[in-house]
Task: inverse folding
């Protein structure tokens, strides 16, 4: 289960998010981030991944936090 002390920011590494809440994976996949098992992709920060997929990182963080809060 997601730990509330875990902070998600633009600099948070995707693998850290998935380690704390693996149920968040569908939210990444919604944006076309299907290569989450790739070592390079999981080492990316949230901001880098959003930039690569043309997604506003601040909006995604809001959506991700809501998804984790209510979806996990």
Result:
């Amino acid at each position: 289960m997601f730990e509330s002390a875990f902070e998600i920011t633009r600099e948070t590494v995707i693998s850290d998010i998935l380690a704390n809440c693996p149920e968040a994976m569908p939210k990444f996949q919604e944006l076309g981030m299907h290569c989450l098992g790739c070592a390079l992709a999981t080492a990316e920060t949230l901001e880098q991944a959003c930039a690569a997929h043309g997604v506003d990182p601040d909006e995604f963080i809001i959506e991700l936090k809501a998804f984790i809060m209510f979806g996990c």
Remarks:
- The mean pLDDT is 83.
- The helical segments are 14-20, 25-30, 39-43, 46-52, 57-71.
